[in-house]
Design brief:
This protein has ten helices and nine strands. It is α/β, with parallel strands linked by helices and 259 residues long. Helix 1 packs parallel to helix 2, helix 4 crosses helix 5 and helix 8 runs antiparallel to helix 9.
């Protein structure tokens, strides 16, 4: 499942996908993007995998599009490339398992949007986020025009898109875009600590909460109330629910299995 541009590791119920083009700040390639889709598809069907972590090798998370190839590709090539990127974004969002972006260095352009597509962002205190599209006369791709306005509102999102100015990890944390801000030397350790905590939870309930929260942005209150009403009986029938209730009564920590 690993390839030259994507490193794949499974350990302790956690699938780690490491973008591996450090010489180009992990700019995207078809090989990398297709590898992510393949790995997520396998994670979907593997009950042993509870959480996915997405990180970058070398000095940065990802610079997004490869600037070296810009101006040398046809509009049709760009259309095809963004189609592959869109499949990655949708695979992350549709996966009923949490995906954590572990960000250091730069998350720029579509690299920033890839992080936004994840469910949680752990940011190193040295990281910077930049929507650099306007610097090269482009619009956002990778879902940024969808995700960012919903997170910080349209006015600030427009400012970030129009100016392309790098935004510090601390500002992202203050805005609620990053879930946690950690020293860069502790990023991997803190990310795994966070991932393990989620992996130890009730997998089916966690997956359904991800689905419900994402769906809430395009649903009415009545629709969400009915979805909760339909979903909760399914959760009541899970082994994890029974284990949680038993553990609570026995005053011990629950041992969830995702069943």
């Amino acid at each position: 499942m690993s390839n030259q541009h994507l490193l794949v590791e499974v350990k302790d119920r956690i699938l780690t996908l490491t973008l591996n083009r450090p010489e180009s700040l992990n700019s995207f390639s078809h090989e990398m993007l297709n590898g992510i889709v393949e790995a997520l598809n396998q994670a979907r069907n593997n009950p042993e995998i509870k959480v996915i972590v997405l990180s970058g090798a070398g000095r940065s998370f990802s610079a997004g599009g490869d600037v070296k190839t810009m101006g040398q590709v046809s509009p049709n090539d760009v259309y095809e490339h963004i189609g592959v990127l869109n499949t990655v974004i949708k695979s992350i969002r549709e996966l009923e398992k949490p995906v954590i972006a572990s960000v250091h260095g730069f998350a720029a352009g579509a690299g920033f949007n890839l992080a936004l597509a994840c469910d949680l962002i752990i940011a190193a205190n040295d990281s910077k986020f930049a929507l650099s599209f306007s610097q090269v006369g482009l619009i956002s791709d990778g879902g940024g025009s969808y995700f960012l306005p919903r997170l910080i509102g349209p006015y600030l999102a427009k400012q970030f898109f129009f100016t392309a100015e790098p935004v510090s990890a601390e500002r992202m944390y203050q805005l609620g875009v990053a879930n946690s801000l950690v020293p860069v030397e502790n990023l991997a350790e803190e990310t795994m600590k966070f991932a393990n905590k989620i992996a130890a939870g009730p997998g089916k309930a966690t997956g359904m909460m991800k689905k419900l929260i994402d769906q809430s942005f395009t649903s009415t209150l009545d629709e969400m109330l009915e979805l909760e009403r339909i979903t909760q009986p399914l959760m009541v029938a899970t082994e994890d629910h029974q284990e949680g209730v038993t553990a609570f009564k026995e005053k011990r920590k629950a041992i969830f299995t995702g069943k």
